[in-house]
């Protein structure tokens, strides 16, 4: 979905989300004023945060407290990032040399494990020709989450009981993934159900006999989207240049 937003409002939102991703604490207008260069007074930033909260991009857990992003806010942030992120794939390709070699040689268990270690996220791969599901990094996933209760922990753990079966049903979804990795926030993900998670996905068609391969990385909504999207892009560039 495309949201039209004034530049200053968008900049305040993006700054608030970056601060929340970095520190995991509600973000106040005073903090943004101290760290940013908006050219306006704190009261103006506060007014922007109020508008963003009213429009559903931020939420305020406690009265008179700071703001945290909603799923709608994360979606806006990621859409801006995907459109504006420079193509720095060439700077990352060398880091993925062994990963790409493992993929092309069919060493998919090694590929998934190493890709998970690269991103520090749970990684899931599905090879359509073999109906095979590969996954690694559940420890990375739980290390990245901020879960406040046993119920939250149970919700995430329960999500992975049938994740392999869900991955096998994603053929039509994979066909819609074209030239850029897709990002899904919260319950909009096609493979997870938990409101605490985000998923980055891409699909590759490699001419080495292995056919189509769906690759997904699962982590906290506070993941480093910039780094992770750039890594997916670099992998696509490396594989497609072969």
UniProtKB/TrEMBL annotation:
Signal peptide: none annotated. Pfam families: HrcA (PF01628). InterPro entries: GAF-like_dom_sf, HrcA, HrcA_C, WH-like_DNA-bd_sf, WH_DNA-bd_sf. Residues 100-229 form the Heat-inducible transcription repressor HrcA C-terminal domain. Keywords: Repressor, Stress response, Transcription, Transcription regulation. GO terms for biological process: negative regulation of DNA-templated transcription. One of its GO terms (molecular function) is DNA binding. This is Heat-inducible transcription repressor HrcA C-terminal domain-containing protein. It comes from Candidatus Harrisonbacteria bacterium RIFCSPLOWO2_01_FULL_44_18. The lineage of its organism: Bacteria, Candidatus Harrisoniibacteriota.
